[in-house]
Amino acid sequence: MAKKMLGMLLTSVLVCGSLGAGTGHAQSGRALPAEKKEVKNVILFITDGMSLSDVNLTRWVQGGKPLEMDAYFKGLVRTYASDSLTTDSAAGASAYATGHKVKSETVSISPDKVTMPFIDKPSEQEAANPLPTLLEAARLKGKGTGLVFTCELTDATPAVFASHAESRDNAHSIAEQMVYSGVDLVLGGGSGYLVPGDKEINRKDGEDLTKVLKANGYEYATSRIDLLSSQTNKIWGLFNEGALDADLDLDPQKQPTLAEMTTIAANKLSSNQNGFFLMVEASQIDWFGHDNDPVGIVTETQAFDRALKAAIDFAKKDGNTAVISVSDHATGGLNMTNYDTMKDLQPIFTKAKHTSYGLEGRINESNYKKMLEEEYGLSDLTKEEEEAVKKGLKDNLSPVIGGILGERAGVSFSTGDHTSEEVGLFAYHPNDFLPTDYAGRGVVENTDVGKYLQLILGLDLPALENKLFLPASDLEAKGAKVTVDKSDKENPVVVVTKGTKTIKLPVDKNIALTDGKTIKLSTPTLLIKNKVWVSSDAAALIQ
Hints:
It is built from 21 helices and 22 strands. The chain is an alpha/beta fold. The protein has 3 domains: 314 residues, no CATH class; 47 residues, no CATH class; 73 residues. The longest helix has 25 residues. It is globular, with a radius of gyration of 24 Å. Belongs to the alkaline phosphatase family. InterPro entries: Alkaline_phosphatase (IPR001952), Alkaline_phosphatase_core_sf (IPR017850), Cu_amine_oxidase-like_N (IPR012854), Mao_N_sf (IPR036582).
């Protein structure tokens, strides 16, 4: 009987897998009138790197009590990229932002490499083209738009919603595009990418983008106190030069929590009568997954769960808001291998005062024994563990501490990288129209989620694909000459000339310079793989 049941289960899994394979148009799902499917507001959570095993561990750490997310679990999401079984954050998040599978490491551009099945390979002309995003389409529809995260603003997940690049590593280009994107609200880390300076993250083009923000009517906040006292709805709040501190480590006087930023963002954006689109990323579950640090994974998952509760509370009170939560991928391959009771599991986590990141700058070879005892209750290090800690102090201490804690808690990891497993889908919709209803199955593609979000927001991204950004060839077809002035390599400028008229389009900015005037455009000018892309209103300046 057991073998028969196992066979039935495997058959079911295989059927679900095959049903989830396609990336074309999904079925319309449960029959509901359009007005019941659409909502005014959407809050999309992306839990970077969070696996269902991470969720399971977090639940047991808090005594097996249900998490907020448990009530909203609706299915599984397949996360592969156009060129890989295992995706990175850029391709994973781009699928949600654009509704397209893209190549790993690229930021919301069509793939120029397709090796996975079920994905149509674009023609040479269609490859590496900028793809419209949910945020861009929502903004053009008059909705409020916002991004909340705990990483740097240029990190892959926030980047894919408000920029386009051939590589996620083009941080300074991405930062400039985001500043000129027209997004209403940005809360997170990464202020160093906006200002010139000598550090690696600082700008090399000499521009202070915080001045650009202020000149365009944004409030610029740098502390939690600034954010809590803010009276404007148009705001950029960057609360650290790099990423924000992990939730367990942050100073509440300086940095807001993910839940606080989520609540404030939703309240501010709700002032827009047309509704809003807000993306919230729990950024650092992934980082602790890479370092195999179970304390960091659990506490960051708990921080996300509190933020999700804040969003659900807002949605239920508002009555016209959907909340969707997905992961871009899983990280670390966490496993619970302790056959004993929770007596060995919980103390490891309840004694922890900081994550391994929170020890940086405070722990050294002379005090590590005292620090590890004070921070984690580790008073019984073996000689092998002591040697590992000493080595980690010179290299990377986080995975060493994670390994010591994991060994005692019965938690192991299969990798320090991303994994290809399906991730959890959590959803709330006021009329109970869910991504699984849209897709007609319980195991959905990440692109299904992206298309579902377009549907419930009343957006048509495919219609924008040939309108939002136009290739330079469209201008040349009008008889214009298009060149790129790279005399200032940090500030390239697209120069369009026709007859006596010359238009200058600074790359990554949404402005046109012509006849002594500065004209604001709907989208920034892009330079992707040496190919120029301009906004439709820039093209309209050429008669």
